[in-house]
Amino acid sequence: MNRRLRVDWPACKARGLCHELLPEVLELDEWGYPVVHGEVTDELLGLAREAVRMCPRLALRLVET
Amino acid sequence: MNTSPIEVREDPDVHEGPALLAGLASGPSLAAHRTQFGDLPRLALDDLVEAVDDVGLRGRGGAAFPFAIKLRTAAEGSRRPVVVVNLSEGEPASSKDSALARTRPHLVLDGAVATARALRARQVHVVLPGDRPLTTAAMETAMDERRDRRVRLVRHVASPRFVAGQARAVLELMAGRPNLPVTAWTPEAVAGHRARPTLLSNAETWAHVGHLLHTGPPTGLGTDDEPGTTLLTLRLPGARVAVREVEYGTPLRSVLPQEDAAVLVGGFHGTWTTPETARRLTVSVAGMREAGCALGAGLVLAVDDCPVVWTQRIVAYLAGQSARRCGPCLNGLPALASALAALDDGGGTARVEQLSAMVVGRGACAHPDGTVRLVRSLLAAYPHEVDRHGAGYCSWTKPRAVRRLRSVAS
Amino acid sequence: MNGLLHGPTLWYLNRSTGLVVLALLTLTAVLGVLSTARGGRLLPRFVGQVLHRNLALWSIVLLVLHVTTAVVDTYVDIRWWQVVVPWIGSTYLPLWLGFGTVAFDLLVLVIVTSLVRARMRHRSWRLVHLLSYAAWGVAVAHGLGIGTDLRQPGWERSAVYASVALVAGLALVRLVGATARHALEEAR
Predict the structure, then answer these.
(1) Can you tell me whether residue A41 is helix, strand or coil?
(2) Domain that holds residue A13
(3) Spatial separation of the C-alpha atoms in residues B103 and B253, rounded to whole Å
């Protein structure tokens, strides 16, 4: 079970809440947009779900592959 | 909107070919088409899937996706599918779809209509190029000639932008929204137009389907692994733009008379090759992939001036063609264009490489990815030229101050 | 029990909850307007967002208390249906009470849509959420018109005026900023 965070790019406006909540997986590029590193481990799952819920533009999704 | 470094040409020299482009002299009319190929055969879905699978028919996007898989996926949905012919030809340097529209429109439409019937689809949407009036007129004339029962031909006109032909952008156009890409959470063959399975393919792919239906598998053409033919747009220095139908397995040098030109293969999202590499390449999906290239939109652009300068201009164009919906593309591509221009100031390639890595895979569509493919291919094929530019020289022209850009003769 | 219903306790409770709800709504609105501003170390964006949500929910809790005390209190004739239906059949300062009702309705709409935000189209949610400005403005009007405390000049009324200036000012700054950015994008 592989879990990844995927960004809905046209919706994302670089608000940066996702990075504040989950810096282990989401860094910000020089313009403030999220760079996703690797997958979401079990211990980070709660925070990942929180980041998805908190995004003011609903631009983040947790995808299972 | 910025202008392309290569002008769109709707009137290429279309050369007679062994399959799709056979018998061009009879003209594009429906009557001539029926005389040459006969009536549209009715094919059951399973037979159609088998036929396209046997010849390994692939799409004309960069990934060369197997058409049979798309067809099967669209057939598996519970809702009635929709067929889409993508003739928007957003790649300015490509002319093969225009050539098909003006010489073999009914092969394209036969392929699409027959597939629609096999899928029990009721609609075939045809997406026409907004910046190619002759092509659009030719296609509309062809559509008006037809009387396909139980299948309705719906027309759309794409906006004159590079990204207008992207699959999701086409679906947006069909839905009455701006003709720009959006995020795709499922492939369109699963759920696309109005959440229906949508079989969207390039006009040339549909022409191959049409040809397959009428004449069967292309025996004797191509190789065992890759039977059949493909269309190339040839833009060579000093020559008119030409569209040629070429068998798979043909050495690329047979269509490249000039042996010392830098060659861009695929399109603006394609790859540069050195003259040496170009001499060794064959027209082959697998072969090119091994060599780090891709057939892409089938463009073969040979230039007798500097590929670094060409890349700077193409990337500047591509940056301006961003739909401006995704942060990394809207910010990253102009920055990449600036970084490429800054190569001439001795800036080095670090910034170019950094930006390239930053924009790949971070957008709703593959526009940044394709742009980076072009840039990386330049760095891989012409590292010495890039360095020389950094030192203020260019192998193709005199020192920087008098570097002039020559457009491709056409 | 009788004393509770007839005495001034409910009345005081109603007035105080009214003032506090107005203050909370102002804070909520300020945090909402500032949500697009850069987050700092002092107030990271997710902190601002969580505060915005929690304050909004507390506002509703106190608002329910506010309207309940108004209805239950026998000193003024305010009926249950007037909590959600404005102006019709009301007898106690109908205009200003009605504003309160409208504010309540709008706030309920805003909060309910925010609770199911993930199930809505973002554009629809956003349009409804803009109504919170209207809700807040109407709530202020309700307070100024109906409130015993705000009828005369005093620190309470000054505080309300300051709140209006604050929210209106911040909203204007955000609007101007967004318009300017949009114009810049179009020009590029």
Answers:
(1) coil
(2) 3-64
(3) 26
Among A10, A30, A61, the residue with its CB nearest the CB of B364 is: A10
Phi, psi (degrees; rounded to nearest 5) at B224: -65, -40
* B-proximal residues of A, 32-61, CB under 8 Å: 32-33, 35, 61
The predicted model scores a pTM of 0.90
CATH code: domain B307-402 is: 1.20.1440.230
Among A11, A17, A58, beta carbon nearest to C49: A17
Matching residue, tokens 């106190």: C62
Partners of residue A17 in chain C, C-beta under 8 Å: 39, 45-46, 49
Q: How many CB pairs under 8 A join A and C?
A: 25
How many domains does the structure of chain A reveal?
1
Domain B13-215 classified CATH 3.40.50.2300? no
Chain A residue nearest residue C38, CA to CA: A15
The answer to whether the Cβ–Cβ distance between A17 and C118 falls below 8 Å is: no
- For A4, the token pair is 């990844």
Against chain A, the chains showing at least 3 CB pairs within 8 Å are: B, C
Complex prediction ipTM: 0.94
Task: Give yes or no for residue B373 having a pLDDT over 70.
Answer: yes
Per-residue confidence at C5, pLDDT binned at 50, 70, 90? low
How high is the pLDDT of residue B127?
98
Contact between chains at A20 and C49 (C-beta distance less than 8 A)? no
- Residue A32 dihedral angles phi and psi, to the nearest 5°: 95, 5
Give the per-residue pLDDT at C87: 86
Q: What is the pLDDT of residue A62?
A: 93
Average pLDDT, integer, range C132-136 = 94
Cβ of residue A1 closer than 8 Å to a chain B Cβ: no
- How far apart, in whole angstroms, are the C-alpha atoms of residue C168 and residue B64? 56
How far is C110 from C103, CA to CA, in rounded Å? Answer: 10
Task: List phi, psi (to 5°) of B227.
Answer: -75, 155
Q: Where are the domains of chain C?
A: 2-187
Mutate to test the interface with A, among B362, B365, B367 (most CBs of A within 10 A): B362
pLDDT digits (tens, 9 = 90+) for B140-172: 999 999 999 999 999 999 999 999 999 999 999
pLDDT in tens, C152-188: 888 888 888 998 999 999 999 888 988 888 888 776 6
